[in-house]
Structures
1.
Amino acid sequence: MARALIRTPALARPGEIVEIRVLLQHPMETGFRPGVDGQVLPRDIVTRMEVHFEGERVFAADLFPAVAANPYIAFPMRVTVAGNLVVSFQGDNGFVHRETAAIRLA
Amino acid sequence: MTRRRSLLLAGAGLVLLRPSWGTPESLRAAIDAFAGGQAVRTGRVTLAIDTLVENGNTVPVSVSVQSPMTPADHVQRIALFTPQNPLPEVAVFHLSPANGRAQVSTRMRLATTQPVIALAVMNDGSVWRHSVDVVVTLAACLEGG
């Protein structure tokens, strides 16, 4: 099944802006590409990523077929309190995935 | 009809027979939908992407916007567009003051040599853009293989 990696700094100073990097294992089949039999392969992409930190939405992304396979998305976040970062994905064919990472204060 | 004119007409016919995807109209419609009808101005946005790309299947791209990212003045959305991929949209990123800095990075596909356009919408509704012409030597696969 799907696998997602979330890279966060091990420890953040209060008020520090850290970079969160997310990598999801997913083919992102565009729906424009013929397979070996000449038939166009049906679209199978991740359409939405949402990031919540302690219940507040801090980041979201709408993805289209032009995002490369195994989507990589990095964004900054200002850390004021320790907590859990929840990254959730939605996609074609009922794809859903959720991954969490803890952010601790130095 | 002169030979020159018939050649000219044949050329025009070829241009009209191009696939309907990736037309300037679809790009304009996508940008208008994203900008909410606001005028798009140049500046504030910096799109970082290699101008010569060997592999169009995975092209690192990063967008940063000059903004203090305070509740009173922040970037709401950043989007990437291309005129000649099958669809004009690449990705739309939703930001908030919680980000502290207006910057996103991802990896995208490029079907051919073309400009890549980055747009940012501020919380006051203003829209800013930066585009970079990118030369692609190996296109993202649209044909089989």
2.
Amino acid sequence: MTNDSILNKLRFFRPKRTKDGCQEEKTADNWAEARCGQRGWEDFYRRRWQYDKKVRSTHGVNCTGSCSWDVYVKNGILVWETQNTDYPDSGEGCPNHEPRGCPRGATYSWYTYSPVRLKYPLIRSSLMEMWQNALQLHRDPVSAWTSIMDDPEKRNRFQKDRGKGGFVRATWEQAATLIAASLIYTIKIYGPDRIFGFSPIPAMSMVCYASGARFLSLIGGSMISFYDWYCDLPPASPQIWGEQTDVPESADWYESTYLIVWGTNLPMTRTPDAHFFTEARYRGARVTAVAPDYAEYVKFADTWLPAKAGTDAALAMAMTHVIFKEFYMDRKVDYFTEYAKTYTDLPFVVVLDPDGDIWLPGRFLRASDLGFETWNAQWKTILFNAVDHSFRVPNGSIGFRWSDEGRWNLKMEENDNKIDPLLSFAPQADTWKTVSFPLFESHGAASKTGVTPVKKITTPSGELHVTTVFDLMAAHLGILPGQAPGTTADYPTGYEDPKPYTPAWQEPITGVPAADVIRVAREFAENAEKTRGKSMIFLGAGTNHWYHGDMIYRTIIGMTTLCGCQGVNGGGWAHYVGQEKVRPQAAWSQVAFGLDWLRPPRQQNGTSFFYFATSQWRYDNFNPETVLSPLTRTAPARHMADYNVIAARLGWLPSYPQFNQNPLELCNEAVRQGATSDEDIVAYATKQLKNGALRFAMEDPDNPDNFPRVLFLWRANLLGASGKGHEYFLKHLLGVENAVMNSDTTLRPEEIQWREPAPEGKLDLLVTLELRMSTSALYADIALPAAGWYEMHDLNTTDMHPFIHPFNPAIDPPWETRTNWEQFKTIAEKFSELAADHLGKAKDLVASPLMHDSPGEIAQPEVNDWRKGQAEPIPGKTLPNMSVILRDFPNTYKMMTALGPLAEKAGIGSKGVVWNASDEYESLKATLGTVQQAGISQGMPTLEEARDVAETILALAPETNGETAVKSWGGVERRTGLSLQHLSIRRRGEKYRFDDLTVQPRKIITSPIWSGIESEDRRYSPFVINIEEKVPFRTLTGRAQFYQDHAWMRDFGEQLPVFRPPLDMLALESTQVRRDPGKEIILNYLTPHSKWSIHSTYSDTLTMLTLFRGGEAIWINDVDATKIDIKDNDWLECFNVNGVVMAKAVVSPRIPQGTAFMYHAQERLINTPGSKLSGQRGGTHNSVTRIMVKPTHMIGGYAQLSYGFNYYGPVGSQRDEMVVIRKAGEVEWYED
Amino acid sequence: MKIKAQYAMVLNLDKCIGCHTCSIPCKNVWTNRKGAEYMWFNNVETKPGIGYPKKWEDQNDHRGGWQLKEGSLELKAGGRLSKGLSIFHNPDLPTIDDYYEPWTYDYGSLVNSPHRRQQPSLRPRSQLTGDPIRLEWGPNWEDDLAGAGETGPGDINFKNLDYAAFLQFRNIFMFYLPRLCEHCLNPACVASCPSGALYKRDDDGIVLVDQERCRGWRYCVSGCPYKKVYFNWKTGRAEKCIFCYPRIEAGLPPLCVHSCVGRIRYVGVLLYDADRISEAASAASDQAVYPAHMEILLDPEDPAVQKTAAAEGIADAVLRAAARSPVYPLIKTWKLALPLHPEFRTLPMVWYIPPLSPVKHYSESSQEQDFIDSLRIPITYLANLLTAGDQTPVRQALKRLSAVRHYMRSKRIENKVDKTLLDRVGFSEETIEKIYRLLSLASLEDRIVLPKTAPGDANLFTRQGACGYGDSI
């Protein structure tokens, strides 16, 4: 500060003038004053702002933001971060991407030096003690670990201590040795398929994800999927388009002129992008918000439709009724009709199955039905050509995809002859038939009838009655075609008739006035008509996180398809929950899953894994009978778990642990039995499966031989955030005290061995590699300190914008923290060293499912179970694929740290697209340098540093290497017979290096891995390539499908989009533990994304805690609160059979009655008192949830309904759940 | 006429997403230290609600700002004499509970916890006393209408409205109000300071507390009707938003503006007539203050203004920036942006574009005539907040916003421009296009127009080698 005299401090003695001659002034009757001079003190704040450097980085959390940040370092200390604003320009007429960021990301620097950070490797003290004693006794680490595992008392003792504190500091050497010993023990005794890794959403820090995934894949462990497990995967997307998820980038919202925001809270969860939404309004876009509460996005709407939570499909069915009637039946809109004929399955022909007097919608008619001789005739669907009145096999169905005809395209042709498909048979019907449709209402399932125009055709196997999907839709929706004869079927007389699916019908279900439904439906469709498809619907957790979320989505997406909005800039669906985009996906997966060394990797679907691993299946009282279609004649399985077992053995879903035998031992046994080749080993395993000597582990999940044994968590907080059925995790997987109040049901599976008592503590070792003491770290046996996002090199992309961002270290990882890459290298090195003595090389039989985008997706035109004698067990056909892999365990470290030979020789690809990468491989040798050390990796490009991995991804990916982009179209061009290279050719010369990204984020190049076009002239919109270039959707018909004809889809009544009410969780006895009904209230329990965290990350930063209520909170309506004498900020006890969570009440008129909102991923670490009910500390938001699986998500080997990792599979839904809430009064803190 | 230049800010509440990103870098850089824990130079409040500190708007409680007494302006808390008499006891000072007792957690105990019977968990502890506390209030306690059923009735903006009717599910409304120091033309804080520690910078109008001169009397704290001056309990001095002058001086926007991902903030130069401040602040009625305030804002493109300003020594670069100012047209020409509680008579220089909201009775016809009245946010509420209850300017601003949307829609969708609306709001097509661009397309350099002028010091050559060394060189 300046030298300041005593006199200066008193107002009246201050000099009035300075030497600069500046005039000091007073204004406003001398009350206000301007001062000049005496301002030297102002340096006080200037010095604070001064810094030494800033470094470009970003955040790798599970977030779709992907924002570029400057990180500031002052005096060697990382002090704060601000958003970058230097994104490449969007071009004229579109807002720029500056700034991007959110309040959560802005607090990240807090973690750097926070006392909650993990600074050193930590081991649970009881385990550490046992381990050190055992090492003294045994010297060999593997023997030492064996001695602990062989002693049930010891194993039980350290398991029981999980989560109770008591960590001690260890060295990296100690921790790595223990981990390596446990891995080797597991591989030896049980098999590598008992080792698991869980880490979500790679796009946000893809090298970090790859670090553990690569190591585990190389040793035969399995990564667990997350997108389906989180229930963020919309199964409707693969069902409709065969595409996991592809969505418009946020700037494309600005193109839209009608936006319906339907269950995704854009301001809260798409914070950096929300401005495109608010700004589109000034460009003339209208906004409708569908939300059960007055959510943040409702603030920006013109219309709010407050539909009751979970009833959205009823609303959408009524809107579809209006659109279909007014824009297809009463009046034909050329744009819509043309779109429907070309890009949807509406004109495709469906066989009707007789059922007494009525008919049921059956399978798609196939070329094989008509006796046509063609490749894959069972997989080619049929149209009726209006020109020559004949049934035709148009290009583009999936049968063409897996043949070499070059006709897998959407040209409306058969053998080069033009076709004009008939959308409806109504004008040319041979006859009309009454068709029955399932009707699902909250009081139970029933059926309704409609009439449909029918053509009769004679086929080699007899006469068939057929109609079109369009005609079925009309009958299903309750819209009678003008040509129809008089009927007694169930048709409403008008919109005001409360029969399905009119606006009046939905009113009592959703609470939305019929008039508003009609108005919004018309506005939506009229807007699409006038703009050729620029009507957009935003979807997300609010609509997807339900047991029947796929049906909610199918009804809503149907509106965009009917109005020709998909594949149009500014139109179509916009799914924003958990979606991500590893833009350089093919290149990244090479490295991440070790495909450059060994193929295939093991990849387990999360929902099934946790359903069995945490024994939640044992409590599942959800009888499949209750969700079956009332019209099916197929007997249901007895238990939901049975469907999963069937799906595993037919090769539909993966199942790791794999068999009831160590897969290494299985290979040895086969050799002992005379196998001399890999084929012999596979044949032996197949024989053993057939005769029942070898069983799937899933058939006996509670057998200790079939437990998952080791689990790694990194970039993941399974226990504090995503673990649905948290208390079951604690009880069965970890074996610790828990608040489960549920008991086994009487419902018993028929495919699974029931064991008593239920096992507790399945997991030998839980390792968490973490920045901070999260719930998962707290419950881990070993917590390894990880580097933060400002301390590493990595890459980051999202689908919300076209840029790729770098991470750069602003400081070195402090204390003994290490980046994920270095952490897993440390483990790999120790593992390799111990493996030399214990494992050597060994053959491993890997069973893997019939994969999406592989020939396996046309393996099973019908459901035939080999176990029931309906088929022969054939790997890759009626069984999973089986591959024998030679694992070179002692060379794991060398493999991990070099780019292996298959990258060069076997090609790179994804989604069925493959290209050769030998040029890139050669150039990487020069860029990265090669491994000098003698051995298996000598001469190969080195992957020693995380930055090398990033550079490798950039070089191999078509999205960041223009030359590769052009090359990568080759295979697609052959399959489709289309010319497509032009989509990337303008950017052929571009090739990004890591340093380029550090200078400025760069825009991605168009590639065949994605369905939209990256261009300077337009924004990314999904399916543009399908629509404009006529590349088929990856579905059975090659078109967007309203109709799902798989046998299981028909059994569950889900052929067509239909409303299914939320599950009746009261009937499923969720709340049967209530104690004092007079003082309790039962509410639907919703878990939307939080404003004050990205999942659990940031939730513990002091700033985020300060900006709301400082700990766990549950929102309820004020009228509901009054009923149980609750005031705002009172303590609540919230519970059901699954467990208890303690939280502060947030009472608000914004919340609808009957619902409780607990914003998700609130951990039990902060401001969480004890529960009187459980006698333990209150739980997490997931303590009152459990997994409910849906059989139709398990279908496989059937075109778009084929498994892919994070792509298709059962989702872990949780929004149907009900809870009991009561006032907790004074609380205990349980600090002993 | 005495022309002065001031940096002013406009916030478009119609775009604000309530994300609070603005608050965080501000906190990280300026108030992330002992004594400043509870200070938020920038905070965001959900309306309806009573905010931070509690009921700051209610001057019957807090007695901040100015009032007219027998036609002349005086501080609501009393003049110099009464202040002198009560200098050791300021009855209007907010208590820490009005803000919130800043808390933290013993984070390290989670990592270092010994083995316990129960899973360890962190309890909030006061940052002032270190003791466990029960959390009762915070800087954003009412986020998204949390507890609004209980606090809402205390929101003075419900004046002349039946609050109970609005605080129920079907009728509920909400919007966000980001708040920072208003850098007023007639700052009550400056006038309240017995030590003369507060001043308004001559060159840019930023109001500061001299950290060397402040004696900790805290009359600025109570005198500011926006409660944007805080007392640092560690240093014993008052602190407040500094409009990020270390950044502003370099031509960079304040951190809250830089960080605004909703892109709702605009910063630019305003020219005003300092001779008429007193006249404007003393306007005869509360509702007359806003029009009087507008009167003294000068047209930067008026040659007479430019000439006088140049003669008074305002730098050329500043005048050029004033002419390109994004805030001037928003405030003065188009009258989209309105002041916050002009009845406090401080002549605030942070302005707000009022928010549109969903139509309430959507099933009824919503003709343009009654469209504004059918919005969920009652006009009366917005008028109480922004125009001392005068509905006319609020209606005009909302209609104009709506007209931009309507015009653009007709142009894009119908391919023909609907001009009927333009006349009704008094806008030409060019004006609408300009507004559209500024509200949605404007990039950072369009939203923030600041001169990058060096300090007015003759001897910059010497300063070049010495700056940064402090006074020891």
